[in-house]
Design brief:
- The structure holds two protein chains of two kinds.
- Chain A contains 13 helices and no strands.
- Chain A is an all-alpha fold.
- In chain A, helix 9 crosses helix 10.
- The mean pLDDT of chain A is 88.
- Chain B is 35% helix and 30% strand.
- Chain B has eleven helices and 14 strands.
- The two termini of chain B are 34 Å apart.
- By secondary structure, chain B is α/β, with parallel strands linked by helices.
- In chain B, the strands form three sheets. Chain B has a six-stranded mixed β-sheet with strand order 6-7-8-3-9-10, sandwiched between helices.
- Chain B is elongated, with a radius of gyration of 25 Å.
- In chain B, a hairpin with a 2-residue loop joins strand 4 and strand 5.
- Classes of the chains: A mainly alpha, B alpha/beta.
- At the A-B interface, helix 1 and helix 6 of A face helix 2 and helix 3 of B.
Chain lengths: 240, 311
């Protein structure tokens, strides 16, 4: 694998995010929502903690189910539509380098979007005692979850040349992963523990408590690997 | 610096796009791929450039197999796809730098190569404009610059002059001819004059099969077309009688009345291949007491051959 090629794709993609309004909209809206929720929970509950913030259903829903598909919807579908995929795939660069370049640039954009939370932490820290470790693992949980959903979004966008279809399908897939965990109560207890492992919710709440369990890491990394693998298969499908 | 295509066949599902074709192109050759729409030109090019795999058969570019040594092949190639893929939100400078990096051009040389392409393709006046705002001709030039920036041994151009104005077409053709001296160029087109103007070898392909292969001159010579004479006579004679008399000439197959211009009649006279009919026709017309105003033999052109082979 040639890291130079990944870097070339990565920086081009990142630049094009910032050349279009998508990146700014996502960042500004996220800052507005998170800032509002942060101050609300901070003053209402009146304790120095970010657990309510990271545990907020609304923030998670907007970030994981709406923003990530919005960021990833163009990644391959636009290349297909404009025919530039043919350009990229006839240059001396492998499919996997192309996928990783695109994947990592979307992940970078999400990490930039999440970075204001560090500011919130610093503000609370100035007022009262707040443990650093749970904050860090919560943030890590958010990044891992984003990494998984970006994988879904990139894969879906490689299936179609229509951005809107890519967006809607990714929203539906992300939503079902996201909501599945909330619906587990309706399942019989005998199967819950099995399904629980598949849901993102279970792992996210685990890691937010400050516990970095190897099962959680294995879950996320295998899901990320799997979505990247599917994207590679999807790119190769032109050869079938 | 060569392309070797051996028994290439390509199916899209059940549809046979390319049917067992073989050809070779060497350094210094500008090979024109000619054929009607859907003949398999673009498909063959997509396979040479490793975008699609062959169903059966092999292709070697500079000795590298397109399937097994795909990355090596891509390093040797410059490719301008039919749809001329561009990033509309980039300007030509950024776009060419991006492509140069992908092509693996060393960072120190990128600027030099890019500036050379901008000069060669005449992009200086639009270098900082978004590609999306450029006219079709400029877009096409950016596409050509993209294909040539890595100074490739083998240049594959799918309809390189589409969308250009006549001046630009001549410029681009001259550029291709110049490049063709030290490279292998394969270009596809359905504009026949392009082939005669640019290529030193033509392959006509129809329904996935090669139906002709040779220099433009060879193809013209090989044509089994008949000789045609266009005759114009003064209208002081009976046109039916004259046409009957002309038909009596032994080597004439058919006489066709074309039009009455008011003071003259125009006929097309079809004869056997190779026969020069002018003398006998002239004699015949004089015998009929009519006056010859003009007479031309028509050479069978590449267009006739094309039509004949791809009907």
């Amino acid at each position: 694998m040639n890291t130079q090629n990944i870097k070339t794709i990565y920086s081009k993609e990142l630049k094009s995010y910032f050349n279009s309004p998508v990146a700014y909209i996502v960042m500004i809206v996220f800052m507005a929502i998170s800032g509002f929720l942060f101050t609300m929970s901070f003053f209402q509950i009146n304790i120095a903690s970010m657990r309510e913030f990271f545990g907020s259903f609304f923030i998670q829903l907007v970030l994981f189910v709406v923003f990530i598909p919005a960021i990833t919807m163009r990644s391959f579908s636009e290349e297909k539509k404009q025919g530039t995929l043919e350009l990229l795939l006839t240059k001396p660069i492998t499919d996997i380098e192309l996928i990783l370049g695109k994947y990592l640039s979307a992940l970078t954009l999400i990490i930039i979007t999440l970075s204001p939370t560090i500011l919130y932490f610093i503000i609370i820290k100035m007022i009262g005692p707040i443990p650093f470790w749970p904050f860090l693992t919560s943030l890590l949980g958010y990044i891992l979850m984003s990494a998984f959903f970006i994988g879904i979004g990139v894969f879906v966008s490689s299936l179609t040349e229509n951005q809107i279809i890519a967006f809607i399908v990714s929203v539906l897939i992300c939503l079902s992963f996201f909501l599945f965990g909330k619906l587990l109560v309706v399942f019989p207890t005998s199967v819950v523990s099995f399904f629980e492992y598949l849901t993102t919710d279970y792992h996210l709440s685990n890691i937010s408590r400050g516990v970095i369990d190897s099962r959680v890491l294995i879950y996320y990394f295998s899901m990320i690997f799997f979505t990247i693998f599917l994207t590679k298969v999807s790119l190769e499908s032109r050869k079938w | 610096m060569s392309i070797k295509v051996n028994n290439l066949t390509k199916y899209y599902g059940d549809y046979l796009a390319v049917d067992n074709i073989s050809f070779e192109a060497k350094k210094g050759e500008i090979l024109g791929f000619l054929g009607p729409n859907g003949a398999g030109k673009s498909t063959t090019m997509k396979i040479i450039t490793t975008y699609l795999p062959p169903t059966t058969g092999t292709i070697e570019v500079d000795g590298f197999d397109v399937e097994e040594k795909s990355l090596e092949v891509r390093k040797k190639l410059g490719y301008l796809p039919e749809l001329n893929p561009l990033y509309y939100d980039m300007n030509p400078v950024d776009y060419l730098d991006f492509v140069a990096k992908l092509d693996g051009i060393p960072a120190a040389d990128i600027k030099k190569r890019r500036e050379e392409m901008i000069r060669v393709c005449g992009l200086d006046s639009v270098r900082h404009k978004d590609i999306g705002t450029l006219s079709k001709g400029y877009k096409q030039r950016v596409g050509l610059a993209q294909a040539m920036i890595n100074n490739p041994d083998v240049l594959i151009l799918d309809e390189p002059t589409s969308g250009l104005d006549p001046n630009q077409i001549i410029e681009i053709r001259n550029l291709i001819k110049k490049l063709g001296k030290e490279k292998t160029v394969v270009l596809s087109t359905h504009i026949l004059s392009e082939v005669t103007a640019t290529c030193n070898r033509v392959i006509i392909i129809n329904k996935g099969k090669i139906v002709a292969d040779g220099t433009p001159e060879e193809l013209q010579a090989k044509s089994k077309g008949q000789s045609v004479v266009t005759l114009e006579v003064k209208n002081n004679c009976d046109k039916n009688e004259l046409s009957g008399a002309l038909k009596d000439i032994r080597s004439v197959n058919k006489v066709e009345f074309v039009k009455d211009t008011g003071d003259s009649f125009v006929f097309n006279i079809y004869g056997e291949k190779g026969a020069d009919l002018r003398e006998v026709i002239s004699n015949k017309v004089t015998q009929q007491k009519a006056t010859v105003l003009s007479m031309q033999t028509k050479q069978s052109s590449l267009e006739d051959i094309f039509r004949e082979l791809t009907k």
